[in-house]
């Protein structure tokens, strides 16, 4: 069974799908850049803290350096960043299924 579709309508649908694909591509690109920035933060922030002594405290009794604050900040902000990237990923997948799908 063949369904006849108006060529103008078909062209409009193709243009609309192209617009949605472009937006989804930009969302995909934003997701990948965000993921790369979060991973770079997780790797480079502790190195920065150790090199500069920022967020490194000294134990008053033993005199040893404590990196608790460095670990806490890295894990907290890293996990929030990864959660944001996961949210962007889920949003992109949902939009793909809705618009192109």
TrEMBL record:
Transmembrane region(s): 24-47, 67-91
Domain of life per record: Bacteria
Protein keywords: Membrane, Transmembrane, Transmembrane helix
Name of protein: ABC transporter permease
Taxon lineage: Bacteria, Bacillati, Bacillota, Clostridia, Lachnospirales
């Amino acid at each position: 069974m063949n369904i006849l579709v108006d060529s103008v309508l078909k062209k409009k649908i193709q243009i609309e799908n192209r617009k949605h694909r472009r937006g989804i591509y930009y969302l995909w690109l934003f997701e990948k850049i965000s993921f790369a920035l979060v991973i770079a933060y997780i790797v480079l922030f502790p190195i920065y803290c150790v090199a500069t002594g920022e967020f490194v405290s000294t134990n008053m009794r033993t005199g040893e350096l404590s990196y608790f604050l460095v670990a806490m900040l890295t894990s907290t902000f890293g996990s929030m960043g990864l959660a944001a990237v996961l949210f962007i990923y889920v949003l992109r997948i949902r939009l793909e299924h809705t618009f192109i799908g």
